[in-house]
């Protein structure tokens, strides 16, 4: 019990298309970790029989919506959960087709790790490049390339080595910090949870062992102190008459009582009087903790302000260079006005210029374009109506990300990573 | 730097508190949908933590089907008093009396589906623009696709194929007049997380969740409490059983499990070894493969 409560949470994303074995792999992880319940298996068996399959289609476990089940495709991000005695896992299961790039980006935005599936018979394909590019663009800290269907290539070490070499050559062009490779057969179970008896030449760890042990404690930024204020807590009671607490989530660095801090945009400085949650004092607050902070001095602070350290500040600017993933049917042209949301701040913004878009399959830049459409990834210049306190996305995924909202429809139309 | 990490329950707690605070910041009239079940009790506990030392700045809404366990109602009233929050009760009986809905008939009659009308009427009456609920993605396959911030049109409907993408910590709660949001702060929790958290935080629960003796009947393999709301079929007999509940819905549709577990530790052990989902005991989900998705589209919880 006590060990389980100390477990860390690992969020990972899987991207893949219908026949690369993604659903089988997820089914295998859930099944072998005993996270599928009998009534769920019963329901899937019944549906498989209804569809006339002579096997249990584990993809029916993840495809939850009526239209997905009818069409046999995943159209949205589905979240799945499982736990082992060592860790708790959240899977963001996303479709792999190019028309679902926006769903892959969504799933990737909160992931510590990405699983990229490669069919051992086919080697690297367009979609391998696409998924890897998205993992690198979204700065997923860890990538595991699973060379799947090894049973169909006689568990050949040569086939595996060639794919590893090809991938390494390609991924050197990308910005991925930590890449691992595992030869697996999701169908037969080789190297997923149990070590394979068919690939004695492989000396690395199984996929599950890797998921359980990959070092994720430093995936959050613990260097640059960033505390965006969500709201101000003022109880107005006799006991807490003068209490003025700043509620929010730590987006970076380590805050301690007594630390000197600076408030943006006002520029006032003060010291941290206390950090607490529910009246329990907190010695050191770091990402992703939700806390309530009080300061020594009475300063006018409101939602959208950011508390930082005087010697380490984000850039305060109204001009952003952003890699944006466009998520809406309506195309984006330059000079379009939108709402931008960055940490707890929201204001008007205008896309001044579309610099280029990226071909997500070849990584080539396409320049001189006047508009971008759904699922396009492009570099754009944005002017905001109010100053934004930004970090580069590669430095901090929380203070370096923005979403764009259409002011008429209120839909989220774009996801941006600050360069 | 390696020591700076949160155990998973702390991370889930931090995420839920962030979402609850975001709701209060982004909406004018939020509320918490309180069923009396363990998930909404956990939600109320998280809300208390989020705003301490201030009080929870929104009311609890309870949709009372009139078929609740008496334990649930007693627990609700005590909790509301302890937290010092406003309680709004939407009554299904009233909706029936006003002719807004028609009571189902027959032995499997339930007021489950009727709740949706009462819920939407109550949200409209009090002009609630964000209703927080304790639904979790691991409960049911349609819920696995649910967002934290889930948009509802002016008819209260969910459009699962046209949901807003949700990225990082950035939640978009913008809406037009007449629309509202459902928000699910504990989306990422599993049944096990909820139980472990209840143990860690020593949260009080209604006695239903612990092993007790009760008069029950077995219908379609589900153990149901015998009550005035249930019509016995000729072949059904009432038996005294030692049971507890894994979820807490209406008396006529919520199935009990045979269990001797009378402490949180024993319940957690039981949850760890159990082989069926908690909603597997809910008759309302057995009305078809996409029963939950269909109800959710109409505006169900």
From TrEMBL, chain A:
Top-rank lineage group of the source organism: Bacteria
Pfam families tied to this protein: GTP-eEF1A_C, GTP_EFTU
SUPFAM superfamilies registered for this protein in UniProt: EF-Tu/eEF-1alpha/eIF2-gamma C-terminal domain (SSF50465), P-loop containing nucleoside triphosphate hydrolases (SSF52540), Translation proteins (SSF50447)
GO term, biological process aspect, one: sulfur compound metabolic process
Keyword presence, Metal-binding: no
Nucleotide-binding among keywords: yes
EC numbers for this chain: 2.7.7.4
Enzyme class: transferase
Domain called Tr-type G: residue spans: 7-219
GO molecular function ontology, one term from the record: ATP binding
Keywords assigned by UniProt, alphabetized: ATP-binding, GTP-binding, Nucleotide-binding, Nucleotidyltransferase, Transferase
NCBIfam families: CysN (TIGR02034), PRK05124.1 (NF003478), small_GTP (TIGR00231)
Name assigned to this protein: sulfate adenylyltransferase
From TrEMBL, chain B:
Origin: domain of life: Bacteria
One BP annotation, GO: sulfate assimilation
UniProt KW keywords: ATP-binding, Nucleotide-binding, Nucleotidyltransferase, Transferase
EC number from the UniProt entry: 2.7.7.4
Molecular function terms, GO-annotated: ATP binding; sulfate adenylyltransferase (ATP) activity
Domain Phosphoadenosine phosphosulphate reductase positions: 30-255
Record bears the keyword Transferase: yes
Positions of the UniProt region annotated as Disordered: 277-301
InterPro entries: PAPS_reduct_dom, Rossmann-like_a/b/a_fold, SO4_adenylTrfase_ssu, Sulfate_adenylyltrnsfr_sub2
Family: Belongs to the PAPS reductase family. CysD subfamily.
Stated name of the protein: Sulfate adenylyltransferase subunit 2
Record organism: Algoriphagus marincola HL-49
Higher taxonomy: Bacteria, Pseudomonadati, Bacteroidota, Cytophagia, Cytophagales
